[in-house]
Amino acid sequence: MGTSVNYTTGNVLLDSGANVTLIRVKVAEQLGLEGKPISVDLDILGGDVQAYQTKVYRLKMYSANQREYTISAVGVPEISNVPRVSTVILRNMESVLGQTLCRGYGAVDVLLGVDYPEMHGGETKQVDGYLLRKSPLGWVMFGSSGDPGQSTTVLHVNVTDRTDLTQFWSTEEMGVKLLNCKCKPSDDMKMSPGEREQFNDMWDSCKKEMEQNKFARKLSDEEIKNYEGPVHYISHHPVIRPEKKSTPVRIVFNSSAAFNGHRLNEYWEKGPDLLNDLFGVLLRFRQHPIAISGDISKMYHQVRIPETDMHVHRFLWRSYESREPDVYVKEVVTFGDKPAPAMALTALRRTAADGASQYPEAANILTKDTYMDDICTSVHTIEEARKVTSDMDAVLDTGGFKTKGWFSNGLLKDDEKTQGEQFVIGDSEEQKVLGVVWDPELDILKYKVKPVATKEKDLMTKRMVLSELAKIFDPIGFTGALLIKGKILMQKLWQTGTGWDEPLSTDDKSDWRRFFTELERLDGVSFERCLMQEPMKPTEIIIFCDASEDAFGAVAYTRWEEDDGNHGVRFISAKSRVAPLKYLSIPRLELQAAVVASRLYATIKEEMSVQFERVIFLSDSIIALSWIRGQSRQYKSFVANRVAEIQSQTDPSDWRHIPGEHNVADKVSRGVSVKDLKGAWKDGPAFLRLPEEEWPKCIPKADVIEIDKERRRRVLYC
Asked: CDD domains attached here (predicted)?
């Protein structure tokens, strides 16, 4: 094995249970192979996944008759060991085969997985309980030595330091049984007496809390012996967060862990998706002047499960001491169970339905304005907010639920203090890179941004940058005009065929570093929460749409007339899409942008409870507007289908032309910097504050040739 100028002999293991081919790093270095850096995911002890930085090498392999094969192999520090086969057995095999066997022993240099299936086939023979197969590389032997004391090394890869072992693959195909071992405690892992006592106290407090709140209960020996139904034990581990005053230790149960070859989640159905539309919840949260936000405390733990389900949620527990553990059962819904969200939301909706006759408004909010355990809504006045929060507490109490507290931009209690910033959905620990927070005192929504670690790394891959993009949480879309630049960069990587773990070029890394630096500047950028004026006045929606060769999208605003004759404008939402890889003409892309605008309007109209006086759509494409105002059946399929959708959701008379220089949606189709999110993007174009007759007007003549390109040809028969 090796190259044409540098080669060596070595031990090759054929493992049909491995889906990747491996090579020992020392062998690759000895052969002078130049590998390409890659990142691989490793399954480690405990079921976690770690990223491992290594290289993939290309080398040649030669059989005994000098046939040449080229393979690619991932470098690992160690693979396994091949046991020695007795001379007597080898001689018997050679006499049957009529040729000499090249059978080595010791460290495995290359493991051939099923990514090279042709290496695993061939003629087979059975000799002395062993199976011999004539592979392309020569005769290979399968079987067990029968020695119970014989063991082999399962590959462990170093992830953090040399003492942290990571399981990568197993060697069952060799027929070797791994021996049990007793791990010696490391001095580095020992706790000081004070730390041990503190941990023990927190651990015991968790057990007491579970028993007192009836989250779990201890089974007696008689119950364990006499119960005849199905039984399953689930594993658990603590998550220690001393900085959290409310929950310094959180116990995590794993319903996906295997017990006796079974995983509990494999037997559950997921149940219906009862989550409300997140965008709709946020729209109603922004609808009226007084906003209300609450979080249901330990929502899953308020929903009890039947006895049969309890016994498939058994777990072992003991304090930090040496004795046989006690057996407990969970009595409530377990976070991590496949049907847990559906069960918890079903209980919440049933609670709301039971209280609807006495508290109809509170029940409606609990049904429509919740996203899992978060409650977000808005009302007209402080008095209404006080009443509805009190009513919701009463309804929730009937189902055993309660909130951690209510937050509002109005004082819900006379002696209440000013409240700080709150994450709109979830909490600060759930937000990875970019999240939306609400400042009740100023009544604004603003962004919290964490530093992007990837931009500081020398090695940057497509997988890494996509991972950072996926961490961005902005359902409202205010940052859409900035984020579209990241989407365009990702599409360019896709077009160039860059591999997931292939290092990015210098130019690509520079582009991504600039984008991530710009993303970090979003920290603190804000916009108004409330979309409506109080007292309520006739309000209209203005939606702009635009397209470029790279992207297309739409942005929506509310607009109302104020007492002084001017008009108020507020940002509602924006949606953007990158242009498809298949070429589309600009008029077709403009029509795609119009589709996005019509869908955005349909969603706003459906999710918000207020009635808008009218809607105005503005586009700078006279060709797209001509198609929208025409009959869909007279166009070819692409235009006809999209025009039909637009006309089914909007009135063609609501579509108007706007000069390109006044079209604010141009920002979402081309991408802008953070500083450009202020001004017209945030507050709407200046002309929206003027009477409609003073809006910029320009009615260019449509290009009849371009319009007719999409018309169906009429065929006359005579």
From this structure: RT_pepA17
How many whole angstroms separate alpha carbon 595 and alpha carbon 646?
6
Same domain, 576 and 702: yes
- Give bridge partners of residue 527 from the DSSP assignment: 445
Q: Tokens 């890179």 sit at which residue?
A: 433
Hunting for tokens 């990568």 — which residue is that? 168
Distances (CA, A) of 652 to 223, 376, 587, 615: 71, 35, 17, 11
User: 209 and 135, same structural domain?
Assistant: no
Kindly report the CATH number assigned to the domain that includes residue 17.
2.40.70
3-state secondary structure of 468: helix
Judge if 294 and 426 occupy the same domain: yes
Q: Which CATH number belongs to the domain containing residue 587 in this structure?
A: 3.30.420.10
Residue 472: partners with Cβ closer than 8 Å, 6 or more residues away: 433, 434, 479, 483, 519
Most confident stretch, 177-186, 347-356, 633-642: 347-356
Residue range(s) defining the domain that contains residue 512 = 445-529
The b/e string for 112-126 (b: 16+ C-beta within 10 A; e otherwise) is bbeebeebbeeeeee
Residue at 181 is within a domain: no
Residues 249 and 102 in one domain: no
Residue 4 predicted with pLDDT over 90: no
pLDDT in tens, 333-369: 998 899 999 999 999 999 999 999 999 999 999 999 9
Does the pLDDT value for residue 619 go beyond 80?
A: yes
> 493, 561, 498: which is closest to 533 by C-alpha?
561
Q: How far apart are CA 502 and CA 488, in angstroms?
A: 19
Residues with Cβ within 8 Å of residue 552, at least 6 apart in sequence: 545, 546, 576, 577, 579, 589, 590, 592, 593, 596, 669
State phi, psi for 489 to the nearest 5 degrees. Answer: -60, -40
> Are residues 704 and 654 part of one domain?
yes
| pLDDT band, residue 457 (cuts 50/70/90) | confident
Cα dihedral 490, 492, 496, 497 in deg (nearest 10) = 30
- Based on the fold, state whether residues 237 and 353 are members of the same structural domain: yes
Question: Looking at 484, 501, 529, which one is the last position of a domain?
Answer: 529
Tally of structural domains, the chain: 4
| pLDDT of 628 | 93
Instruction: Give one DSSP letter per residue of 650-693, joined into a string.
Output: S-GGGEEE--GGG-TTHHHHH---GGGGSTHHHH--GGGGS-GG
The answer to whether 402 and 297 have CB atoms below 8 angstroms apart is yes
Sheet of 444-449: strands edge to edge?
A: 422-423, 434-439, 444-449, 526-528
CA atoms within 13 Å, Cβ hemisphere of 423: 16
Whose tokens are 């090498």? That residue is 57
Contact 575, 600 (CB under 8 A): yes
- Check residue 264 and give its pLDDT: 86
- pLDDT interval class at 52 (50, 70, 90): low
Backbone φ, ψ for residue 477 (5° rounding): 90, 15
Whether residue 4 lies inside any domain: the answer is no
The verdict on residue 188 lying in a domain is: no
CATH of the domain at 313: 3.10.10.10
Q: Which of 203, 421, 453 is nearest to 320 (CA)?
A: 203
Last residue of a domain, one of 474, 508, 529: 529
Could you give the CA distance from residue 54 to residue 35 in angstroms, rounded to a whole number?
A: 9
Q: Please give the single-letter amino acid code of residue 709.
A: K
* In-domain check, residue 704: yes
The whole-chain average pLDDT of the chain stands at: 81
More confident residue, 460 or 571: 571
Q: Do 403 and 502 lie in a common domain?
A: no
CA angle 404, 265, 299 (to 5 degrees): 10
User: Could you give the CA distance from residue 527 to residue 535 in angstroms, rounded to a whole number?
Assistant: 21
The rounded distance, in Å, linking the Cα atoms of 590 and 620 is: 9
